[in-house]
Amino acid sequence: MTPHNEQVIQGLEPRKVFFYFGNIASIPHGSGNEKQLAEYIYNLGKNKGWDICVDDYNNVLIRKPASPGYEHAPTLLMQAHLDMVCEKNPGVEHNFLTDPLKLRREGGFLYASGTTLGADNGIGVALLLALLDTEDLQHPALEVLLTADEEAGMSGIKHFDGSQITAHHLLNLDSKMDSLTVACAGGQRFAFHMPYQTCGSARGETYSIVLDGLKGGHSGAEIDKGRANAIKLLGRVVADLQRELDVELAYFRADGKANVIPRRAETAVNPVDAGALQARLDWWKETLRRELADTEPEVTLSVQKIPAVSRVLCPADARRLVQCILLTPSGTLTRNLETGEAIYSNNLGVVTFAEDAVHLYCLCRSSLTSLMNSDYLPLMQTIADTLGITGEVGDSFPCWEYVEDSPLREVCSTAYFRLNGKYPEVISRHAGSECGYIMNVCPSLKDAVATGARLFNMHTTYEHLDIDAVEVAYGYLRKILETFRELA
């Protein structure tokens, strides 16, 4: 652990949970870069005498025998994922491949300085390591699975040998506190690839336009909160500038992840009249301010002259790119009329402007596979065909379907009642979960429940963890394990 992170977590309880979380935060572990963290956990386990192994995809499996009196209770699989979403604020110097996160405390919350915190799902991993490292724990036989690459495609669990698992029940720690998640949406990735041609520009002036300051967020957990999409908003602005001012398009890009609602997008244009461009953008600033006053009060639209770009997209390709942005659905597409929760959504999360092509990346989520297969994919392919560009169907992940008869759900509800005098909320979630994949990959499993700590603004640089709630979550997990004997 870095000295800085050690100082930040000093005095926090449960001590072991925060000790492990501080160590996790000090080890780079973005999606696809989990090897160092997997090795840390493997070495930790070996030093403590745990039954532990790591596969070629950096999935970690740990087994712990039942404590005395729990030998006849059924085995429980507990699971969290090792990787984190890597986002940072503009101007922040941080290399996610090599640099530790820099933790900070603000009030009763834990943040990272200028970057995502990685509590999704680092706090889940830390809770599990602390439970494994507790001598007085009353528990059934445990199988603890820490998977790789959950955020970027779930490739870790896809390649995991599920025959190693003997448990019938799965407790996932990648959900929220005070509720039991018992089902979740599936997901489908889709990409547009648009080759383009350039032509010379004689206008002599180029202006960068940046739309920034949006809240962003997790494309599952926050997609139903009305948060604006920077790509879609800037696409509207550019379409207007093309129509009203005949601007030439030099580039359009938005870095990020398909599962993150984009906070920032940037374009560059060559105008006929710089004064008219500024006046039109002033109009757009006021328009966006009015439109987004309630949901995105920090939105900004800035313009700056940059070195002149002499070659721009040819007019037909410039129009095609903006049309693709405008036509691509993004946000909540269907809601549950009773709860208001999203049932079906799409997020246009990334625009990559390469030397010879533009690439746009999306992630659709739905609790109904039929909507993804018979509505979303035909719609996206129709957009591609209409515009004469390439549509590519990417990875998908399955829905996690509700199980009517769930002994684990009863155990978790009972444990919660004994601690709180009331039963927890039982929910399905629009955000994806590995539970669907795990249930498919591990044939012994019969039911699953997800819970976790209290997190806010996952997948953004505002991600934060409720410090006091971690102790509550730790106590709840202990009570679940203690109650598990009643299934014997």
Summarize the structure.
The protein has helices at about 5-10, 15-25, 35-50, 120-130, 155-160, 230-245, 275-290, 315-325, 370-385, 405-420, 435-440, 465-485, and strands spanning about 50-55, 60-65, 75-80, 105, 110, 140-145, 170, 180-185, 185-195, 200, 205-210, 215-220, 250-255, 260, 265-270, 300-305, 310-315, 330-335, 340-355, 355-365, 390-395, 425-430, 445-450, 455, 465.
Give descriptors for this structure.
12 helices, 32% helix, alpha+beta, 488 residues, six-stranded mixed β-sheet, elongated
SSE layout:
Elements: H1 3-9, H2 15-25, H3 35-48, E1 51-54, E2 60-64, E3 76-81, E4 103-106, E5 109-112, H4 119-132, E6 142-147, H5 155-158, E7 169-172, E8 179-184, E9 186-195, E10 198-200, E11 206-212, E12 217-218, H6 230-245, E13 248-253, E14 260-261, E15 265-270, H7 274-291, E16 300-306, E17 311-313, H8 315-327, E18 331-335, E19 342-353, E20 357-366, H9 369-387, E21 390-397, H10 407-420, E22 425-429, H11 435-441, E23 447-450, E24 455-456, E25 464-466, H12 467-483
Parallel strand pairs: 3-6, 3-7, 7-23, 8-22
Antiparallel strand pairs: 1-2, 2-6, 4-5, 5-25, 9-20, 9-21, 10-17, 11-15, 11-16, 12-14, 13-15, 18-19, 19-20, 24-25
